[in-house]
User: Fold these one by one.
Assistant:
Number 1:
Amino acid sequence: MRVTLLALLPLAMVIASSSKVNALNMGDLTQEDMEILDARNHWFERDLYAERRSVPSGPTSTSVSVVPRPTGTSAPGTGCTKSADCGTGNCERGVCKPVVSTGAQCYKNANCASFNCTNGKCVPVKGQGVKGETCNASDQCTAGSFCEYSKCNVKVASGGVCYKDVGCTSGNCVNKTCIEPASVSRGGRCTKTLQCKTNSYCGTNNRCAAKANKGGACYKTEGCAAGLTCRKKKCRA
Ligand SMILES: *[C@@H]1O[C@H](CO)[C@@H](O)[C@H](O)[C@H]1NC(C)=O
Ligand SMILES: *[C@@H]1O[C@H](CO)[C@@H](O)[C@H](O)[C@H]1NC(C)=O
Ligand SMILES: *[C@@H]1O[C@H](CO)[C@@H](O)[C@H](O)[C@H]1NC(C)=O
């Protein structure tokens, strides 16, 4: 880590000595470069290393939404040289600033309440997005929740409304309804074979039906017992 930081120092010094920092394309700089810029007056301080500490890979507790970060005592609006100087843990170009919520713009992790700035937006740390937080992948949300139209929301129990498998506690969304796998008896309505009880499949008229044994009639392989294939309308080995 230290070696990498030292390797970046010439860059930081060049940028720091330039009066055109704001004209630089932020996209050319990494989060860490940004921290170095913010800390440029004190870049030799050991505290800088603390700023570069990586976020702990989150436990999937449903109550955790804010990742611990180094913080100080300076109030928003007062001067700072590094994020750890600020009560908010966010130093932006020499001034302590409040942190922003998921979905808001950012240029480094320290800007975000979630401590994860990805592609210029604050996003939850993996597995820590609580209900209502902006997301664009379900693994950003806590265990037991998922990304529903860009916001983390809790998964739905069987019988509830859904639009994708990950939105159901059972992991099965069928016909916009969360279902338990293997829960429909023969003759019951289905749209997927996984809904039907063991040794049955979702057949014609969307009804669960018994699978055929070797030599039995079929129109698709799902309709044949394990290990058999449907060919020429018969289940064959
Ligand atoms: C959101 O998803 C899009 C495409 O799926 C991806 O390009 C983008 O990087 C994602 N943004 C975040 C912040 O994860
Ligand atoms: C930050 O968010 C991105 C995009 O969702 C994700 O790939 C990355 O793992 C997250 N970082 C952490 C530390 O969880
Ligand atoms: C899908 O659900 C609707 C009502 O929610 C129902 O009328 C329809 O029969 C269902 N389709 C199947 C294939 O189960």
Number 2:
Amino acid sequence: MKQLKLVDFVIFLFFLTESLSLPTKPQDVDDFSITQKFIEENVGYITIITFAQYIQKASFEEVEMLAKAMTEYRDQCLTNRTLPQCSKLPNDALLEAICSMEGLPKEHNFSHCCSKVDFERRLCFFLNKKADVGFLPPLPTLDPEVKCQAYKSNSESFLSNYIYEVSRRNPFVFAPTLLTVAVRIEEMIKTCCEEQDKANCFQTKAVPVIQYLKALSSYQKTVCGAFLKFGPQVLKSIYIVTLSQKFPKIEFKELTSLLEDVSSMYSGCCEGDAVHCIHGRSKVMSHICLKQDSISSKIKECCEKQIPERGECIIHSYKDDRPEDLSLREAKFTENKNVCEERNADQHIFMAKFLYEYSRRHQELSTPELLRIANVYDDLLKECCNAENPPDCYSIAESKFNETTEKSLQMVQRECERFQSLGKDGLKY
Ligand SMILES: *[C@@H]1O[C@H](CO)[C@@H](O)[C@H](O)[C@H]1NC(C)=O
Ligand SMILES: *[C@@H]1O[C@H](CO)[C@@H](O)[C@H](O)[C@H]1NC(C)=O
Ligand SMILES: *[C@@H]1O[C@H](CO)[C@@H](O)[C@H](O)[C@H]1NC(C)=O
């Protein structure tokens, strides 16, 4: 994996697209060009990820060929970015290159996508992804000595091949996550190939990396599924919970502005546009790091890291401590007389505020749990705001929330008991 060199980099704005809002603050400009530089240096790997995720049956040779073509394209555009072909959206340029590979569209049956343009084409390629990868052989496992030899003789080709094999089997995992996995795999190889007992080292060190990939893959699939099916509102609700629990200190206004960035990032990542995804994610992370004083005390070290580790580090950082002056109960949603007026003024904002206030006070509850509580509250208010005496009617809200929590606690307990009685072997996944 190529690391970023911060010295003497030039701000190239090739790959700069209208779909991304331009940075305005100096720090953002810095982060933007660092991200840009990262993308430029990793064009090969990014191409491999995108291609292997779109056309999972493509061979490694085909993927390598495209990576080479895209690297040439980058060089061309870095030399002269006023060339007409350099004004394209990066993902469109990539799809164009895929479509113009001789015989390939026919061989892998995606000519119908190439006959479309713009959004229709992107959508067609996206729909071509197959979540069920049963048609691919299991991930090849190499003998440790062979692995070390292969890495030693050509580390770039070895990593390319690894990224290819993982990407085609995980067509929905975000590019930054796959790049992080590649960085970790490389670290593992460097360490283990020096060891006496290589096999044991690989076995031990691979476990957390694979778990990490599996966990993120499943999370990203779920969130993108909800996003693509139900639209940005659901995504925003999920992230109100996640961010408020992680950053209980954050102000509502800051949270709302962060949510806009998160939403834009997901639209790129979920659709498989790696460049948009990397830029989007970087924007979210710079936003968080720039405002860290008012957001969290737990991310200082993460913010000193580089792309893509910085993002992964923040995602996995600990929840910040609940501010001392933040009481556990927030009476304004259950005891205030003008709840219904506030709700009527703007239901979306009202519910967002509720979810924010409840989540930052209840860092121990799960996301689905908090979303359920918000639903319970919303249903209750629908009923109560039409009742004769609304405040009386919604004064039971808190005990309803407790009921919801208890119900899911019982469910979890039942599941755990079932799990214990089945024993470890009963849990297959
Ligand atoms: C860059 O490309 C443009 C458009 O094709 C051309 O007019 C210009 O002469 C090129 N500049 C250089 C330095 O090659
Ligand atoms: C090729 O793709 C088309 C359109 O998705 C589909 O109808 C057809 O069955 C596919 N053919 C093969 C051989 O996979
Ligand atoms: C709800 O649960 C909390 C925490 O267990 C408790 O402090 C509170 O009194 C309960 N409220 C109601 C109305 O049951």
